[in-house]
Design goal:
It contains five helices and eight strands, in the order βααβαββαβαβββ. By secondary structure, it is an alpha+beta fold.
Length: 173
């Protein structure tokens, strides 16, 4: 059984900027997991497939006929999911309309999961951010400013292997 997901990945400079925040969370707030991951916006959440279905998945992903054309995602400031046990702090897209439309187009072709709406975000702290450290960090980050943008001109299919996410296939818009 293998684990996969589909995401949009910002350009290298923006990924480096996001990693600075993740490093801050790792160093000051004990959230190391997000620093070990790579900055992205999830389109299709992680899902499991039997290993012998990977070829079907890759073919389906490769053959998708997407109508979505490249679009700009504007990021502004920080948001959070203040989950009781596993809070998350992220960089917010100003509008998620295009990302939701991309999900709406990809979802029926990927039918390996079920949810109707996505909540686009670029995570900088999660999983191992304790509720106590979340409170401290959010006090600071809720007023911190950040602005940048990136062009979404492809989606990426990732597979989890050897304790990390590896790029399996790219689909250009």
């Amino acid at each position: 059984m293998s684990l996969y997901f589909i995401a949009v990945v910002p350009h290298k400079e923006l990924r480096q900027k996001a990693k600075v925040f993740s490093k801050d969370f790792a160093d000051r707030f004990g959230s190391i997991k997000s620093f070990q991951n790579f900055p992205h916006i999830t389109i299709i959440k992680p899902f499991h497939l039997e290993g012998n279905h990977e070829n079907i998945l890759v073919d389906r992903f490769s053959l998708m006929k997407l109508k979505t054309t490249p679009f700009e995602v504007f990021l502004k400031n920080f948001g959070c999911f203040p989950n009781r046990d596993k809070p998350v702090i992220f960089i917010k897209p100003e509008s998620s309309t295009e990302l939701q439309s991309l999900y709406d187009e990809v979802h029926p072709m990927m039918k390996f999961h079920t949810y109707a709406k996505i909540f686009p975000h670029l995570t900088v702290a999660y999983k191992d951010l304790s509720p106590e450290n979340f409170q401290k960090a959010w006090q600071e980050y809720q007023t911190k400013t950040f602005e940048d943008s990136f062009l979404v001109n492809k989606i990426c299919l990732f597979k989890h292997e050897n304790k990390k996410w590896n790029l399996l296939k790219i689909k250009y818009l």
